[in-house]
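A protein record in our archive is deliberately plain, so that people and models can read it alike. The record that follows is passed on verbatim for readers who wish to inspect the format.
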Amino acid sequence: MSMKTLALIGFGEAGAIFGEDLAASGVTVYAYDRLQENPGTRAALYDKADQCGVQLCDSFAQAIALAGWVISAVTADEALAVAQAAAVLMRPEQLFIDINSVAPSTKRAAFAAMQSHGIGYIDAAVMAPVPPQRLKTPILLGGAAARLVAEQLGELGMNVRRVADEVGVASAIKMCRSIMIKGLEALTTECLSTARQYQAEREVLASLHQSFPQMGWDDAFPHYLISRVAEHGRRRSEEMKEVAKTSNDVGVAPTMSRAIVTVQRGLVDAMVDADLDYPSIEPFDWLHLVDTLYGSPVTRESLSEEKR
């Protein structure tokens, strides 16, 4: 088992970065993304693939047929369906690597589909945002071939580590971590959006900095946390549904996870209602976004005085 040819199913942010860097390492990389079927996004995808040194395939089936290893990098709500569709098309000598952020039970269902067709399956959990570290982004692996896959991906410069021979452990680690990480993003978004309406944001941030001085509450940290929601809130909300499923599957009430879904999706929905998209508000400033969505407290006070 070796990776000389790779198919990426999903050519979004993570898929494009991995594809570009692996192609630069000498791997022949193919890709397929369902957005190719949309005339409005097709040309941009082909341009991106050309820039990355990746060959876009005409169909899902063609991408599967050309590759030795297949990496699924789609949205959480598509992950299981993609695995089930791929299982029917793949050959026993191929390998399916599932890097999607989904519940262990979802990964196990995908593994069962692969197993029924004699296809190798790897549960992979991407443990940090991909853009800053690219191939060095930490990834945990689980599955019968996890040790071998870790060795081969490591030789290509990837930061991978086997954590289990069973499917589900790696994804459980990622899901539990997401409660904290996506939760902190959601808490910060709600906290500072509210504080701004009372002109209390400076004192709130000063208090947070005093309590947690190493986190950067007095600097760029709040901007970073809220920017992650503004840019990726829809995708993160789908992931948090899988996190809620992770807890629920073992009898733990996913109260916080469900609330995080609402906050992550809620900010993105508010931006859509205001005709805002993330590129239009770069360089990102959380105060500017909150004032645009909810109005600045200074403006509201001026309007109130005029009415008097």
About this structure: The radius of gyration is 21 Å. The domain at 172-299 is CATH 1.10.1040.10 (N-(1-d-carboxylethyl)-l-norvaline Dehydrogenase; domain 2).
